[in-house]
Amino acid sequence: MKRDRLVAHLKAKHNAHFNSDLNSFQTLKNNFEKRVTLKSLFTARNATVNRTLEASYHISLFIAKSGKNHTIGEKLIKPSISIFLKMVLGKDDEDVKSMPLSNSTVS
């Protein structure tokens, strides 16, 4: 768009920002780019949930292939993973606590 048309648009539609300097527009742009979007709600926060569900699926598949009861996941596997994360890797085990491996969920 030509400069004269941009100036006319700015004056007509955004008169409050007409005499603003470049820094204020850059701040507006940065705030716009950092805003929370619908896509960011589903990707950033739920990425952990998706990985947890995928891990739960694979563990349940191993349990089913071995022919064991699914209660072994809740009683043996989840505590084992929690201990491994805390002791060996030094990480928090919040994701493991939220992993659905109970018999009623998996069976």
> How many strand elements?
0
| Low-confidence sequence ranges | none
Distance between the termini: 61 Å
Strand count, sense and barrel status of the largest sheet are: none
Average pLDDT level: 78
Q: Please identify the structural class as seen in this structure.
A: mainly alpha
Inertia-based shape: rod-shaped
Instruction: Report the sheet-strand fraction.
Output: under 5%
Count of helical regions: 7
Global Rg = 26 Å
Percentage of residues assigned to helices: over 70%
Please trace the helix and strand order, writing H or E for each element: HHHHHHH
Organism: Nephila pilipes
Protein name: SCAN domain-containing protein 3
Structure report:
By secondary structure, the chain is mainly α. It is 73% helix and 0% strand. The chain is built from seven helices and no strands. The longest helix is centred in the middle third of the chain and has 20 residues, at 47-66. It is rod-shaped, with a radius of gyration of 26 Å. The model has no long low-confidence stretch (mean pLDDT 78).
Summarize the structure.
The chain is mainly α. The protein has helices at 3-13, 22-33, 38-45, 47-66, 71-89, 94-97, 103-106. The chain is rod-shaped.
Fold blueprint:
Layout: H1 3-13, H2 22-33, H3 38-45, H4 47-66, H5 71-89, H6 94-97, H7 103-106
Protein name: SCAN domain-containing protein 3
Features of the shown structure:
rod-shaped, 107 residues, mainly alpha
